[in-house]
Amino acid sequence: MAARPLAIDPEGLEVRITTMRRRHLRGVLKIENQVYPRPWSLGLFMGELAMRNGRVYLVARIGPNVVGYAGLLFSGPDGHITTIAVDPAWHRLGIGARLLLELTRQAVAREAANLTLEVRVSNDAAQSLYQRFGFAPAGVRKGYYAETGEDAIVMWVHDIGTDAYAERLAGIEATIRGRTILEGE
């Protein structure tokens, strides 16, 4: 876990978003093991990273520490958000929103028309974030999370390439405190 300063000024926060690389996986796996009852393995992440044409995986860093990550796969005109997680020590600072903003913008750049994801029925905080991005419930996958038997809500947002959706993203970005730096690699 990346230690969070006791008194952090959200206005002074600097979060760097970059493409996930093998060197980030130690930090990613630390978070993965904290937040999921059935975490992805190193091999699974390695397999996902090997599929560069059909996947986008990002990490959020504060200083040298990975504090969050997210992934997206493409299938036809749709993007499917495969994972998004933030180190619990760094919750409530807009890190998940920053990751979702960049994933969405990369989906638009690759001409995806829609985005979908699954979220635990009990995860109200994540559902609230996704609703800010325009995701709406479209169904339920019964017992989707095998380790607990919990259902998943399937959520979709459509027409992400429109000017109206770009304005929504700009509005979300304007509410995030601190500074986001997109690093190219």
Q: Any overview of this molecule?
A:
This protein has 185 residues and is an alpha+beta fold. The chain has 5 helices and 8 strands. The protein has helices at 25-35, 42-50, 95-109, 124-132, 163-175; strands at 14-19, 55-62, 65-75, 78-86, 114-120, 136-145, 150-158, 179-182. It starts with 13 loop residues before the first strand and ends with a strand.
- Report the span from N to C terminus: 25 Å
Count every beta strand, where a strand is a DSSP E run of 2 or more residues: 8
Chain-averaged pLDDT:
93
**Spatial shape:** globular
Supply database-style keywords.
185 residues, alpha+beta, 8-stranded mixed β-sheet
Q: What order do the helices and strands come in, and which of them pair?
A:
Blueprint: E1 14-19, H1 25-35, H2 42-50, E2 55-62, E3 65-75, E4 78-86, H3 95-109, E5 114-120, H4 124-132, E6 136-145, E7 150-158, H5 163-175, E8 179-182
Parallel strand pairs: 1-8, 4-5
Antiparallel strand pairs: 1-2, 2-3, 3-4, 5-7, 6-7
Structure, briefly:
With 185 residues, this protein is of the alpha+beta class. The protein has 5 helices and 8 strands.
